[in-house]
Design goal:
Elements lengths: L1 E4 L15 H8 L7 H13 L4 H21 L4 E5 L9 H8 L4 E6 L2 H5 L12 E6 L5 H8 L10 E5 L8 H13 L6 E7 L6 H13 L9 H5 L6 E2 L5 E2 L38 E7 L2
Length: 291
């Protein structure tokens, strides 16, 4: 069973005159759900920082590893995926339901183009269920209220926040959003979060982000690895902690690694585990359990 919950009138909401992060991400992953303005911006960003397209691949593989671990190893059967992005290979429900056919997944995004493709995210197994909410990550009360139609908040839930709190510029507001969401989830729930970092060792990342914030939408906020760790305060971080997404349990993919990018997707040099990922990217992530 599946459905789409949210505003359906998309007229005037899709702006094809300015590049958008979700569409550039899709372009870097080899997808077709993007416009010339996105491809031009994506190419210009790669000219500034040639390895940045690999971040999309590393983040996607991190998602697969984390979901596979939680579904197959930790017994989590419910996933709240906020900041879904455009459908790609190995979306959260596909990875989870391979191990747990009755898993339930709620996707949340406020990008109208993602909403137009929401049906691709709703191909649930007969035993499980998926739903899609059109909402902003800041609207925590609305998200939790509407997600409760699909998820049972008396049982553990994995909160997925991959590359989404980077769009909340104020630090304390971003931490509070994560705290509010996790506060409503029971013991045994997990937080899966990834975030673009600032690092003196990667100055080209700063230049790429500066270009984006001048020309694209929405604006991105970089944070230090320590600032990213703060999102997990009060939780029990799983090994290896908050690290480059390419270094979070490499080699534990639930299926063929190549499926994460799709035809034409970015390819990095062989990194840890020989997966074709770069050794390290400025996209850091972690997984933590709620005591």
């Amino acid at each position: 069973m599946s459905g789409v919950t949210g505003h359906q009138d998309l007229r005037g909401r899709i702006d094809t005159t300015r590049p958008h992060t979700a569409r550039i991400w899709n372009y870097w992953l080899g997808g077709k759900d993007n416009y010339p303005v996105d491809r031009e911006a994506g190419d210009r960003i790669r000219a500034i920082h040639p390895g940045i397209g690999e971040y999309a691949r590393a983040d996607r593989l991190f998602l697969g590893r984390a979901v596979h671990h939680l579904a197959a190893g930790a017994g989590v059967r419910q996933f709240l995926d906020i900041g879904t992005g455009l459908p790609s290979a190995d979306n959260t429900h596909e990875v989870a339901q391979r191990s747990v056919p009755d898993a339930r997944i709620v996707y949340v995004d406020n990008d109208p183009l993602v909403l137009t493709h929401a049906r691709a995210l709703l191909t649930s197994t007969p035993e499980g269920r998926t739903d899609y909410l059109d909402a902003d990550v800041r609207d925590t009360d609305a998200i939790l209220e509407r997600a409760a139609r699909t998820l049972d908040f008396s049982e553990p839930v994995a909160l997925m926040l991959l590359g989404v709190v980077i769009f909340i510029e104020d630090d304390e507001t971003s931490y509070e959003v994560v705290r509010r969401l996790m506060a409503e989830l029971p013991s045994g729930s997990h937080l899966v979060l990834s975030h673009t970092i600032v690092s003196p060792a990667m100055p080209e990342v700063d230049a790429a982000v500066a270009f984006w914030n001048e020309h694209g939408t929405p604006r991105l906020t970089q944070r230090t690895p320590r600032q990213v760790e703060r999102y997990f305060d009060g939780l029990e971080l799983l090994e290896p902690g908050v690290v480059s997404c390419s270094r979070w349990r490499p080699g534990s993919e639930p299926g063929p690694v190549s499926s994460a990018a799709g035809p034409g997707g970015p390819e990095g040099a062989d990194g840890p585990g020989g997966s074709g990922e770069p050794d390290e990217v400025a996209m850091f992530g972690g997984v933590a359990a709620k005591p």
